[in-house]
Specification:
It is a single chain. The protein is elongated. By secondary structure, it is α+β, with helices and mostly antiparallel strands. The longest helix has 34 residues, at 77-110. Helix content is 42%, strand content 16%. The chain has a domain at 163-339: Sandwich (Immunoglobulin-like), CATH 2.60.40.420. A hairpin with a 4-residue loop joins strand 6 and strand 7 (249-253). The protein has a five-stranded mixed beta sheet, with no helix packed on it. It has helices spanning 2-32, 38-66, 77-110, 126-154, 269-276, 280-283, 323-331, 356-366, and strands at 165-172, 175-180, 216-218, 221-224, 229-235, 240-244, 249-253, 259-263, 285-286, 291-292, 299-303, 315-321. The chain binds copper (II) ion.
Length: 367
Amino acid sequence: MVAFLSFVVIVLLFAVLVLIARANELSLVLKTGKMDFTGQSRVNGYLLLGFLIVMFAGSAYSFKELVPVMVPKAASEHGVKTDQLFNITMLIIGVVFFLTQVALFYFAYRYNESRGHESYFYPHNNTLEVVWTVIPAVVLTGLIAMGMYEWMKIFNVEARDKNMMVVEVTGKQFNWIIRYPGKDGKLGDRIIDATHISPTNELGINWEDAKSHDDFMADKIYLVKNKPVLMKLGAQDVLHSFYLPHFRVKMDCVPGIPTEFYFTPTMTTKEMQDYLSTEPWWQTVNPETGEQRWKTFKYELACAELCGKSHYGMQKEVVVVSQAEYDAWVSQQAAAYESVKPKTTDEPKAEVTGTTETKVQAMLTNK
Ligand SMILES: [Cu+2]
């Protein structure tokens, strides 16, 4: 309500200003007897020039303040390439933006009415039309072609390393369920129905499938430096988005439609911390922890889809380590099957005697 009333007040104030300006104009016409706005035109010219300067000074200031706070350099193989593409695109459109805005506002100032210029009627020029259509078309096609080329490389299924790791991540309101395939490297099947999904088996893992017996659940995503990983993604309820900003990985998690993302981390968490310890902003002290920021740096998995009221809480830590450290971590993980498998007893089953009918009866009740 307060926001709405503030909005109404701003609109009404603006309307009052417009009416005052209009009344001023009319009184001027009445006083001088002619339509002469060269004075206002001069003021407008200076205001536009001022706006140009303030706009670029503001942009430069926000670049200076915010670029050091942005995510650091990419920690994945393809991330370096996508960053290059991003920088090339920003450079090209940045130069064009600068030139066109300078021309727009400077011309509005330089040729305002008060300078007594007669405007020159110049309706059409074929050469100009061709030049400013063809050049942007060629440049944009080039940018798109470069983007497509990198995209095809990132999603080239044939080029995947056969020894890649596999990790399954499922989004739900409001958490991530992380499952590793265990020693066999294969995830057990899941059956999505009412009998398989339960509070103790959120994913509907089919325990009859032997592949599931060594699968384990994790609270953090552990990855190995320079080892390719295939993230198998899904969602339990609504759209989520699997976002690893430091690795330049982002992929939607869609209920009912499996998606995946294949990439190779190139820096361990420790190496990224060491790199950040040389960056000025990361050397500043975080008031929340009382420590230099780089010391508490962690790779992060975040949800990048507004999926509900606790969307912001969908975070997990990603840890990149060496193969040896990873093996040590895996050896500490307990297979999820251990907690659900039926208890085996060493007692021999009672000998069943009698008719076939009673034998079957006994077997059924024994089971
Ligand atoms: Cu989400």
